[in-house]
Amino acid sequence: MEPSVPGIFEETRPRALELYREHVGPMWAKMLRTIGFDRQWVRGEGPYLWDADGLKYLDFMSGWGVFNFGRGHPVIRQALVDTLEAGLPNWAAFDTPPLAAALAEELTRLLPEGLERVYFCNSGAEATEAAIKFARAATGKQGMIHLGRAFHGLTTGALAVNGDLAFRDGFEPLLSPAVRVELNDYDGLERAFSAGDIALFIFEPIQGKGVYIPEDAFLRRAAELCREHGALLVCDEVQTGLGRTGRTFAFEWVEGLEPDIVLIAKALSGGYVPVGAMVTRRAIHDRMYTSMDQGMRHTCTFGMGDLAMAAGLASLRVLEEEHLAANAGRIGGIIREGLERMMPRFEFITEVRQRGLMIGIEFGEPRSIALRGAWATTHRISPDLFPQAVVIPLLDDHRILTQVAGHHMDVVKLLPPLNITEADAEWFLAGFERTMEALHSFPGPVWELMKKLGKHAVAARR
Fold this sequence. Notes:
Elements: H1 5-12, H2 16-23, H3 26-35, E1 41-45, E2 48-51, E3 56-59, H4 62-65, H5 74-86, H6 98-110, E4 115-121, H7 124-139, E5 143-147, H8 156-159, H9 165-168, E6 178-181, H10 186-194, E7 198-203, H11 216-229, E8 232-236, E9 261-264, E10 276-281, H12 282-288, H13 306-321, H14 324-342, E11 349-355, E12 358-363, H15 369-381, H16 388-398, E13 400-401, E14 403-404, E15 411-414, H17 422-439, H18 445-461
Parallel strand pairs: 3-13, 5-6, 5-7, 7-8, 8-9
Antiparallel strand pairs: 1-2, 2-3, 4-10, 9-10, 11-12, 12-15, 14-15
Helix pairs in contact: 2-3, 5-13, 6-13, 7-12, 10-11, 14-17, 16-17, 16-18
């Protein structure tokens, strides 16, 4: 008899890193081992993970925003079990899937009036790709405006509006014309639109890379320029959507902002089955599909699978019934207040940016001479090294999983599930405080770790 899936998991787990290195991604495996993140995770539930030694960890990454509702949510899990047991036809291809129709109706109910047509796919990157095509079809124009530090995905079209040069390097020329504007650069925004032929302006209401929040006036001006120039306003809610920032969608924080296209993914999956969606206006949708023979102009084979649609429907139910957006606002406020109380004591912390449970902690050059010298030395070795001195001790010493917020930035990002409790917030704050105490002791244990990682960085460059 063939082993069960749990059996395969247990059999493979002790050698998973080596197999992954051999057959999937050697550089990723090497990086995890270098920074000590090569844990053997054996179980996940809610906001927690357990390793092979039975130790419990607090997950403040949520799989890059997938687990808004925690791992293994019973309501979402049961919806998938019920769907499997129902024996639904699934992917009949020449059909109008009922679960897709139901999920589309629910998504449009949550969004402002006028956003009433939904295109389903599998991921945020695919939703971005769809937005580019729909915008070009609807406007008859080609140009795209995006922001510095923007993400939006890593497929070729999405990469053209990705503002992180580390991801773009080696793949130019990309889809064009695409113009980069820095966040809150009003003059740059005006110049970009004045060039003409702009099909879309795409933005994240909070940038995932660094947790940078655009000024309300900047987004309002972008919307005005879109209207003036016949371009579409595309809002990427892939990470910020579905309660993450304390509201259902993050663009709701900007009064009067009315996107033409909204991109959704990650949390819509419930952490089970990948699903993405692009929601747009009827007139825009009709310019893509102009006649019956154009009905397949943009499609996705796996875009409306019954399991994905069931996961999406259950996820929206959990979001509303458990009032998770409100909880994100409340617990996020507790964490921010706790961090701000620490700032006077810890010179390295320069800013805390927070909306709901999307939090960025930025570090900068300290005042005292000894710490300033350590800061300079660290950055000479590698511009990516310093924040590792926060995330590694948080994991090793306090069993809290966090992440560095992006390339070449001294920002640690918190993205916990929306159903964490006050006790979870206190667990994080206590661990972070002790990590800061060690970091501000020079020389100290954290600086020994930095020295070790620095040697690895130099060796890697050689």
